[in-house]
Amino acid sequence: MADKPIRADKAGAVAELTESFKNSPAAVLTEYRGLTVAQLTALRRALGKNASYTVAKNTLAKRAASEAGIEGLDALFSGPTALAFVSGDPVEAAKGLRDFAKANPLLVIKGGVFEGKAISAAEVTKIADLESREVLLAKLAGAMKANLSKAAAVLQAPLSKTVRTVAALQDKRAQEGA
Length: 178
Known about the structure:
Blueprint: H1 8-23, E1 26-31, H2 37-47, E2 51-56, H3 58-67, E3 81-86, H4 90-103, E4 108-114, E5 117-120, H5 121-129, H6 133-177
Antiparallel strand pairs: 1-3, 1-4, 2-3, 4-5
Helix pairs in contact: 1-3, 4-5
């Protein structure tokens, strides 16, 4: 892309988008053609505090992605484009977009960025299919607790076996002595 000078008002928009690309762990590019303002408002509400949904001009968004060091998105910047910049858990935002797209087929997920790398629409769906960070942490904690319980039982087994053996020997000697 030839770097043509851009007007000051557009330079501010590019700078803002560039910061969003740099500061977000993930971003999802969507096509919103045919959605009403009310539907877009509902989408923003569905994303909640974890993401911001911004309609952007393709040329400005493409330049911002390039300035943020993200490659591989150029083909996605066609048609009306909106970006969901994720500030929280990428899984939650991807689920919100996927669920909204199921209910409103006019919203098309084109692809996105995850940890600075371009990803396809199918990869965004895979991220949406993951469980949330909290659920995964709870499962990990449960697995760790179960493994610790098993380890304690294994470590206790030889000691309790030794105690039972000594008690059996004492009983045997007591019976022989009687």
